[in-house]
């Protein structure tokens, strides 16, 4: 059972570079989301999607883009990496969003990203 | 400013002691979830509470949702080293967003 798969697990970038963090789930979940986790800050929502073709911003969306062309995949793009984006990034999926059905979110194991 | 405030931030106790972790907000949540996270892994759900005043028990863990659905607590009885980890609360808000607290890092010493 794969669940939520994130790639890569580790990445080092230089300031100004762009890259895409991949996230795939095999549970046919409609809701997917991206978080970043920084020391002492918990997880902060970057972007989320309630289904294919639908995305919306979370708490900290600046500097990131997302798209949802299929139910399974929800990639996160860093357009021009900055040192402030050094963090651990988690992708999660759920049958539905936070207020409907109260379903648990299933998390991947994270991507550790360093921006030099 | 975080929507959900957790306290304490850090807790180091001896095996066998009891502890309580708090999750507070000025906002009303449709649901409140507690997760546990171990180093190098994503958070894993422990429990979801939905109704104000609800109490749920999971072996030695007791979860409570405040009457006004703005706060929650996690109580662990007779803590064990295997309980060590980062405990996170998350509020379901505005139907499509989860907001996480900053976490409580628990260390249970043998």
Quick structural overview:
Chain A is mainly β. In chain A, 0% of the residues lie in helices and 50% in strands. Chain A has strands at residues 4-7, 10-13, 19-25, 31-38, 42-51, 54-57, 64-66, 76-78, 87-94, 106-107, 111-115.
Number of helices of chain A: 0
Rounded Rg of chain A:
13 Å
Could you give the distance between the termini of chain B? Answer: 36 Å
What average pLDDT do the residues of chain B reach? 91
Outline type of chain B = globular
- The number of strands of chain B is 11
Helix content of chain B: under 10%
Average pLDDT, all residues of chain A:
91
Largest sheet of chain A: 7 strands, mixed
Shape of chain A: globular
Record field, number of beta strands of chain A:
11
Topology pattern of chain A, helix = H, strand = E: EEEEEEEEEEE
* Terminal residue distance of chain A: 35 Å
Kindly report the greatest chain-chain contact and the residue count on each side.
A-B, 28 and 30 residues
Q: Beta-strand level of the residues of chain B, as a percent range?
A: over 45%
- Beta content of chain A comes to over 45%
Spans of chain B of at least 5 consecutive residues whose pLDDT stays below 50 are: none
Q: In terms of per-residue confidence, which ranges of chain A show pLDDT below 50 for 5 or more consecutive residues?
A: none
Which sequence of SSEs, written as H and E, runs from N to C of chain B? EEEEEEEEEEE
Biggest sheet of chain B, open or closed, and with what strands and sense?
Answer: 6 strands, mixed
Please identify the structural class of chain A as seen in this structure.
mainly beta
């Amino acid at each position: 059972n794969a669940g939520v798969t994130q790639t890569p697990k580790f990445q080092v970038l230089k300031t100004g570079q762009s890259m895409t963090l991949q996230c795939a789930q095999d549970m046919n979940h409609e809701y997917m989301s991206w978080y970043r986790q920084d020391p002492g800050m918990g997880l902060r929502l970057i972007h989320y999607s309630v289904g294919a073709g639908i995305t919306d911003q979370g708490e900290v969306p600046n500097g990131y883009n997302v798209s949802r062309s299929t139910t399974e995949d929800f990639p996160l793009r860093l357009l021009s990496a900055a040192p402030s984006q050094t963090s651990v990034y988690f992708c999660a999926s759920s049958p539905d969003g936070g207020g409907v059905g109260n379903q648990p979110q299933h998390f991947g194991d994270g991507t550790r990203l360093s921006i030099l | 400013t975080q929507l959900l405030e957790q306290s304490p931030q850090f807790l180091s106790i001896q095996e066998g002691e009891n502890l309580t972790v708090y999750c507070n907000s000025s906002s009303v949540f449709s649901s409140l979830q507690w997760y546990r996270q171990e180093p190098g892994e994503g958070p894993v759900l422990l429990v979801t509470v939905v109704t104000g005043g609800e109490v749920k028990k999971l072996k030695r863990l007791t979860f409570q949702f405040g009457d006004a659905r703005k706060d929650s607590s996690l109580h662990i009885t007779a803590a064990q080293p295997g309980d060590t980890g980062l405990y996170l609360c998350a509020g379901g808000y505005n139907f499509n967003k989860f907001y996480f607290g900053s976490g409580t890092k628990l260390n249970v010493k043998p």
